[in-house]
Design a protein that fits this description.
The chain is built from five helices and no strands. It has about 160 residues and is an all-alpha fold. It has one domain: Ferritin, CATH 1.20.1260.
Length: about 160
């Protein structure tokens, strides 16, 4: 099915964001694991899997619309320590939320309701799961202090 060029371009821009988020979560999960922060590493690895699924959904939709997926990720921002990792990952999620909302509005204008529905599910996942969890963790660090938080992320 031939899709709107605007929609395909927008989906490719979203794909670049999802690929960057995936790659950023990937390196962050490995860093956290190496530091012995196993619980945080496992959660970030879970987020990497979610971003991979989002990228897969976008690729499938682009191909369905007879477009060519652009597989170049956006720029990565790698954290230096746990709070920095969470803050940088949250910044990526906020960017994705903003871009998803704009894409959903475009889908409405272009009357592509199937793509809109796909993106609405991704928006819900990004806001309710990814961004919310990162906001909670940064709040917990402020509440209990970094050292106490770090202790909760280790396993023996």
């Amino acid at each position: 099915m031939k899709g709107s060029k605007k929609i395909i371009a927008t989906l490719n821009a979203l794909l670049a964001d999802e690929l960057a988020a995936r790659d950023q979560y990937f390196i962050h999960s490995r860093m956290l694991s190496e530091w012995g922060l196993v619980r945080a590493a496992e959660r970030i690895a879970h987020e990497m899997e979610d971003e991979t699924q989002h990228a897969s959904e976008l690729i499938r939709r682009i191909l369905f619309l007879e477009g060519l997926p652009a597989m170049t990720p956006s720029k990565l921002t790698i954290g230096a320590d746990l709070p920095d990792i969470f803050a940088k990952d949250l910044a990526v999620e906020y960017t994705v939320v903003k871009n998803l909302r704009a894409a959903i509005a475009l889908c409405e204008t272009e009357q592509d309701y199937v793509t809109r529905e796909i993106l609405e599910k991704m928006l819900d996942d990004t806001e309710e799961d990814h961004a919310h969890w990162l906001e909670q963790q940064l709040g917990l660090i402020k509440l209990v202090g970094l050292q106490n938080y770090l202790q909760t992320q280790m396993t023996s």
